[in-house]
Amino acid sequence: MKRYVSICILALLIILARDAGCEEAKVRLGLFVTVLQEPAVLSSRAGISALIDYAKKARVNVLFVQVYRANQAWFPSIVADAAPYNACLKEVRGDPLGQLINEAHAAGIEVHAWMNMLSLGANKDAVILKKYGTDILTKNRYEKSSLEDYKIDGQYFLEPGDPRVRRELTDIVGEILSSYPSLDGIQYDYIRYPDKDPAYGYTDVNMHRFKEASGLSHIEEGSLVWDDWKRGQVTEFLGELAEKARSISPDIQVSATGCAPYSRAYHEAFQDWPYWIESGLVDFVTVMSYTPDSQEFEKYVLDIKNRGVDLKKVNIAIGAYEMAGTPASFASQLELCKRAGEGICTIFHYGSLVLYTSLSDLLLMWYNDIK
User: Fold this and answer.
1) What CA–CA distance (Å, rounded) separates 205 from 162?
2) Which pLDDT score, from 0 to 100, does residue 15 have?
3) Is 176 in contact with 98 (CB distance < 8 Å)?
4) Which of 159, 214, 215 is nearest to 190 (CA)?
5) Residue 77 in contact with residue 85, Cβ under 8 Å?
6) Closest-CA residue to 53 (of 92, 100, 119)
């Protein structure tokens, strides 16, 4: 019954869109594949093949496969913690990411390595943290007496203005691209300050570098020069990551995720993603337009259009995980994304679609004509 209702909802939305004179432009579709879903895709040959089969049925063009999270690697690494890769290697009896890339390419599907860069999640045993200590974790001005005090919204965030952080993470990028030259792209996630409170960046290294560069002896929170510095650190770090990727794989597609709306990205996460696009720093940005509210989603899409950027270089991401009980919202957002421009409509994430069949049904029939 639920499946029938979902199909009717999408049929109605498509009919309404056509009656309104909307063009039926073909849209490229992307799908996030997270390592957190159960069972993890990279942990079995069957899981990898099931993903590719699903992607073919849904006409997915690009898979964004999470391969680095919380300083752990699902690929050969000596810089990060490669325990997850080694575990998958035993289960699959071969290289799991290599198998995924081969099967995807055989089906005409691109594979982009999705990497969570400046977040350590809740991993207090991260290799980089043990190597450098808490000095590399971004922080506010409050006194810290334990590692737990550095947590921000349940996560540890690395300081983008610390050269040690940049060096370690660019080395990790070098490892994956050297190991998998056939990757089509690399997407840098968590290229930002934590945005729960703008008052971060007060590490000794970052403050010293700021004072040296600005000539100021005092930091005024919220001042234009301090905010511009933090925004600049995020952009400079992304530039180093992009340069590293292109030095190894000149033809690779380099992308990053950006927060929505733009005001949040610019003033709280210290991301200037329209500049990243306009300057050619990245080939495209995936804007995380996650909301179960279709009206709010439509506002996000309008906000993107108002940035004046090339819409071919903007992916609009839909948070399917938030719409398990509201398939109508998912259908509506798919149609809004379809009419937004010529970028990739990207679904977050594969595990949610497998878990919530009503959403999966809608996606699988998205390109089909309904009479």
Assistant:
1) 6
2) 47
3) no
4) 159
5) yes
6) 100
Q: Where are the alpha helices (DSSP H) in 217-311?
A: 224-248, 262-267, 273-278, 294-305
Per-residue DSSP letter, 90: H
- Residues with Cβ within 8 Å of 28's Cβ and at least 6 positions away in sequence, in order, are 61, 62, 343, 344, 345
Task: Examine residue 105 and say whether the peptide bond preceding it is cis (omega within 30 degrees of 0).
Answer: no
Q: How many residues are listed for the chain in this entry?
A: 371
Task: Give strand ranges (E) for the chain.
Answer: 28-33, 62-69, 72-73, 110-116, 185-189, 253-259, 284-288, 314-319, 344-348
Report the candidate in 229, 232, 209 with the shortest Cα–Cα distance to residue 221.
Answer: 229
Compute how many other C-beta atoms are within 10 angstroms of the C-beta atom of residue 151. Answer: 16
- The pLDDT of 73-82, averaged and rounded, is 98
Conformation bin of residue 299: beta by default, left when phi > 0, alpha when psi is -120 to 50: alpha
pLDDT at 6 over 60: no
Place of tokens 């991260």: 126
Give the position of tokens 């040690």.
164
Q: What's the pLDDT score for residue 39?
A: 85
pLDDT at 169: 98
Instruction: Answer whether 0.90 is exceeded by the pTM.
Output: yes
Residue 288: which of 312, 256, 313, 266 has the closest Cα? 256
DSSP states of 168-208 as a string? HHHHHHHHHHHH-TT--EEEEE--S---S-S-----HHHHH
In this structure, what is the dihedral angle of CA atoms 223, 229, 235, 241, given to the nearest 10 degrees?
-150
**Paired residues of 155 in beta bridges:** 152
Stronger pLDDT, 18 or 106, i.e. the higher one: 106
User: Residue 155 carries which DSSP code?
Assistant: B
Instruction: Compute the 3-state secondary structure of the chain and give helix, strand, coil in percent, each to the nearest 5.
Output: 50, 15, 35
pLDDT mean over 139-156: 96
